[in-house]
């Protein structure tokens, strides 16, 4: 049965727009005009995934060079299906843009992000009976604090593969509850990120709002402040979330105050889970310390600047204030850990 003609492939592009700094270096004193898409061929829904009723998503970061071509495309996160990752990378690498310009000259636009979502038609949105059976067992064991039985049930679900966004969402709901019960906040955060990675509609709205609220709290606890602020902005736009927004407002004010108070360092724990780790900066200076394992390279991707470095413990990176909206990508061996410390910037930068 050929399902491909019936497939609905939605590409929810979140390409970052470059913010223009108020105070800029002389070399960057012209207004930056963002790259404009000219041709963005749709990603191809992998045939086997479609025939098996699989859904998924892939989030990528890429650079648009001076010729309007995509380069340095990397997968930041995904639902875990390799065929979707290959499809998304192949599509994005073919995209063409009218390049960004500054002072009427083409420049690189170095921090662009997109999320491609692979959707099936509505009839495929439910969960299978085997999934529902195992999900209910997992929740029952968690509620009874019988955690030793849960890992095997999770493994059974993983071996059967998650079919669609609904199963994926409830799988990660179960994971979040499991890690919360174990007081494993880092993995709880990772699980909640997976829950809210897609739009509302797969879990009840009140549950979705509760997990966004929890995600903000965990991001603040783990010093992932840019993520806390962006998630708060997202929560603020959701009808029915007014009570959560009001409750969090004083803590968001404290986040803004901490970012401005450069006498206090901001420590972020990092670990390579696949091939890279990324972090959105709230300051213009940082260092890497306490490296355990092998780290290869470090990239700083900003709105209109892109630089690659060797990773060296104790070295401070000072980013010019004109490089707006910067994100750090660190590549290395799976399991390698370190601390990224956001610090006070050097005065002459």
Characterization of the model:
The chain is of the alpha+beta class. It is built from nine helices and 17 strands. It folds into three domains: about 5-125, TolA/TonB C-terminal domain (2-Layer Sandwich); about 130-260, Serine Threonine Protein Phosphatase 5, Tetratricopeptide repeat, CATH 1.25.40.10; about 265-340, Sandwich (Jelly Rolls). The strands form five sheets. A four-stranded antiparallel sheet has the order 1-9-4-5, covered by helices on one side. Strands 10-17-12-15 form a four-stranded antiparallel sheet, with no helix packed on it. It has a four-stranded antiparallel sheet with strand order 11-16-13-14. The protein has helices spanning about 45-50, 80-95, 130-145, 150-160, 165-180, 185-195, 205-220, 225-235, 240-260; strands spanning about 10, 30-35, 35-40, 55-65, 70-80, 95-100, 100, 105, 110-120, 265-270, 275-280, 285-290, 295-300, 305-310, 315-320, 325-330, 335-340.
Number of helices: 9
Q: Indicate the proportion of strand residues.
A: 25-35%
The CATH architecture of the largest domain comes to: Alpha Horseshoe
Largest sheet entry = 4 strands, antiparallel
Strand order of the largest sheet: 1-9-4-5
Radius of gyration: 21 Å
Shape: globular
Q: Which structural class fits the helix and strand makeup?
A: alpha+beta
Number of domains: 3
Proportion in helices:
25-40%
């Amino acid at each position: 049965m050929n399902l491909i003609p019936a497939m609905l492939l939605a590409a929810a592009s979140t390409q970052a727009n470059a913010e223009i700094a108020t105070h800029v270096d002389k070399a960057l004193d012209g207004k930056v005009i963002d790259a404009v898409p000219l041709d963005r061929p749709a990603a191809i829904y992998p045939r086997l995934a479609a025939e098996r009723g699989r859904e998924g998503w892939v989030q990528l970061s890429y650079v648009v060079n001076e010729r309007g071509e995509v380069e340095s495309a990397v997968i930041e996160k995904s639902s875990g299906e390799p065929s979707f990752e290959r499809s998304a990378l192949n599509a994005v690498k073919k995209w063409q843009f009218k390049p960004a310009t500054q002072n009427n000259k083409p420049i690189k636009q170095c921090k662009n992000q997109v999320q491609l979502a692979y959707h099936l038609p509505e009839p495929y949105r439910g969960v299978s009976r085997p999934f529902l059976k195992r999900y209910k067992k997992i929740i029952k064991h968690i509620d009874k604090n019988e955690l030793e039985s849960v890992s095997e049930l999770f493994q059974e679900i993983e071996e059967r593969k998650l079919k669609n966004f609904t199963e994926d969402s409830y799988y990660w709901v179960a994971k979040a509850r499991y890690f919360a019960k174990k007081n494993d906040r880092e993995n709880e955060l990772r699980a909640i990120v997976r829950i809210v990675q897609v739009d509302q509609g797969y879990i009840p709205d009140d549950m979705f709002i509760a997990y966004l609220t929890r995600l903000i709290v965990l991001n603040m606890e783990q010093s992932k402040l840019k993520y806390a602020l962006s998630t708060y902005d997202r929560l603020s736009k959701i009808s029915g979330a007014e009570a959560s927004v009001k409750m969090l407002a004083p803590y968001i004010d404290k986040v803004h105050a901490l970012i401005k108070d450069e006498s206090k360092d901001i420590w972020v724990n990092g670990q390579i889970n696949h091939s890279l780790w990324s972090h959105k900066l709230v300051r213009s200076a940082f260092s890497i310390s306490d490296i355990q394992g092998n780290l290869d390279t470090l990239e700083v991707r900003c709105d209109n600047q892109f630089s690659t470095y060797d990773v060296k413990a104790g070295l401070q990176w000072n980013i010019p204030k004109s490089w707006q909206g910067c994100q750090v990508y660190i590549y290395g061996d799976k399991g390698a850990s370190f601390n990224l410390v956001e610090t006070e910037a050097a005065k002459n930068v």
